[in-house]
Amino acid sequence: MMKVVRGFYSVAHAVKTCKPNVISAYPITPQTEIVENLAAMYANGELENCVYITAESEFSAASILVGASAAGARTFTATCSQGLILMSEVLINAAGMRLPIVLVNTNRALSAPLSIWNDHQDSMFMRDAGIIQVYVENNQEAHDLIPQAYKIAENSKVLLPFMVCMDGFKLTHAYEPVNLHTQEMIDEFLPPYEPVAKLSVEKPLTFGAYAPPHIYMEFRVALQNAMERARKVIEDVFKEWAEFTKRDWSGHIAAENVDGAETAVVTMGSITSLVRDVIEELRKEGKKVGLIKLRTFRPFPNDEIKKALEDVNKVIVIERAVSFGNEGQVAIEIKNALYGGNNEIYSFAVGLGGRDVPRELIVKIIDNVMKGKVKQGFYFEGVHEFREVIP
Amino acid sequence: MLAVAGFREGYYTLSFPTFGAEKRGTPVASFLRLSDKPIVLRDEVYYPDYVVVLDPTVVESVKVDDGLKENGLLIANYPKSAEEFKSLLNTKRKVVTINATKMAMEVLGRPITNTAMVGAFAGATKLIKLETLKETIYEWFKGEVADKNAKLVEEAYNYMAEVSR
Prior knowledge:
A: seven-stranded mixed sheet, 40% helix, B: 6 helices
């Protein structure tokens, strides 16, 4: 049923239909209303066979889920920014312990200076954790991704935490029409979680034990292998969902009009819609420009990127994060995927800390690259003139 | 509320707010797009067709007619006439005013002008029917609060429909 709801609700409703057993909650803007909506559902008795636990910090919220997931529960939490960073110590353990925890990160900037607004710096910080990361463009995609996330994470070939990344404010606070899942539909799509191994008194096991040098490395290889196997599982589940719902969000990437394109723009998250709109206009003017919407960031779709962009001369990456001392993380990954090719790569960081990215800025970036007005490299765009006080 | 009511009337809608970390008393803004086609844009609205001012004191710190299209309309909660508000802003745009604070005080007993201005917007633009707004209010609120807000919306709608005729 199509209903105008906020991003928060689109997530909470989807989580409810996935029948989680343990939800842990610690508030942080712009995530809080996700767990508040779930708390209301819990209080109204809409979540059966579920325990909702309010934690005293994000560290505890993540720890609660590690315990619950190790005991065989289907788990959920949501966080972002400093909250994700505080969870990071625990979540990295969850990856190592191969626990299929699903969390939603409502992408928000990192301190300092403090910002409650959107960029991708928080989830990028978790890039190397062994956690699957998929970014969504709108609230329907966020809604749709939740059951898929459980199906992927809980697959015995994968067993990894799954982080759904949705732009804070841009999506979370937006009211827009979302086609909401029915319970019957998700019951058909998502089977109950059958853990391969779990904590139990009948068969005692240890999760995340001490691993001396003669054994540690094998665990890490296994983690990488799981990420590699996840590629296929993710793709299969994405396809299954597309057939099941007739809503096709494409695979790890959505390559749009890149065949025969001279220029392609790579984007991730909610900014994709605006960039697509600009590109459609440019194509009407006869410009040969295409779009890559990057959905899966971990595991990174190197082969898909290479295949899609191999023959594209100029690649523009527009992203909302920076690896300070290098450049934007997406651009770094794209360059790695295209290594050995002849592509020119232009990377732009925009919209940090919630700065609005107006249409004109996207038009300017693409236009400048297409007309050869900028050299290959890394640029901040949409920055005011300012004077550094240090030094 | 306008996004929900607009969708009920067959528009595609998308709305989002922008605000700071302050708890109360700072200027905030909210954006709404209504369209016959699905809405994909999520950037802030720089060239609006309509601007709705909920609190007359924001004009001291915000240029509220900034970017308003030439044939656009500014709908303001302001205790005095449209002409007076117009000269205060020194704007050439079309302006209509309504004393929503007074209405809210009379109906709700509190100076919360949101629903009054939702009604004023619908009354001035006729983009959304009064009935649809009231349905939405009864979906969002219960009991006395719903009744009072429905009354406020209706009063503001009718006032603005009369003024804008």
